[in-house]
Amino acid sequence: MKKTLVLGATDNPARYAYRAIHQLKQHGHEVVPVGIRKGQVAGLDIRNDRPAAEGVDTVTLYVGPQNQPGWYDYILDLNPKRIIFNPGTENPELEKLAQQRGIQTEEACTLVMLSVGQY
């Protein structure tokens, strides 16, 4: 299964990041939730630091492009295989930086990908 770092994790059930974490776990993926506030989601502690995570396959973004620049180095230094830009998080600048490092980028919805078996 794919170790996934969810950037923009929240304990608010009305948010898509919350639903994505639950769905990722239900599909058997290891999840590292990272957000701006501490809390818990799907039995996992939301990290509000920048945890060193080894072997990250995917970073799925739930942070708007205006708030992403402060995370660029962290995301890129994780050296994931891919970054998923969920709706509303599209960012040509970060996509270009990632692609220059050989990181695949996708403008897609993690929830949809999981539901149709294309994650």
Descriptive report:
The protein is globular. It has one domain (3-116): Rossmann fold (3-Layer(aba) Sandwich), CATH 3.40.50.720. The chain has a 5-stranded parallel β-sheet, with helices on both faces. A two-stranded antiparallel sheet has the order 3-4. It starts with a strand and ends with a helix. It is an alpha/beta fold. The longest helix is centred in the first third of the chain and has 11 residues, at 16-26. The protein has helices at residues 16-26, 72-77, 92-100, 110-115; strands spanning 4-7, 31-34, 39-41, 44-46, 58-61, 82-85, 104-107. Helices cover 27% and strands 22% of the residues. Residues 2-114 form the CoA-binding domain. Pfam families: CoA_binding_2. It comes from Hymenobacter rubripertinctus. InterPro entries: CoA-bd, NAD(P)-bd_dom_sf.
pLDDT averaged over residues? 97
Structural class: alpha/beta
CATH C-level: Alpha Beta
Number of domains: 1
Question: What strand line-up does the widest sheet have?
Answer: 2-1-5-6-7
Largest sheet descriptor: 5 strands, parallel
| Alpha-carbon distance between the two ends | 10 Å
Tertiary shape: globular
Provide the succession of SSEs.
EHEEEEHEHEH
Architecture, CATH level 2?
A: 3-Layer(aba) Sandwich
Here the CATH topology equals Rossmann fold
Radius of gyration: 13 Å
Question: Which percent band covers the strand fraction?
Answer: 15-25%
**Helicity level, as a percent range?**
25-40%
Quickly count the helices: 4
Annotation, overall tally of beta strands: 7
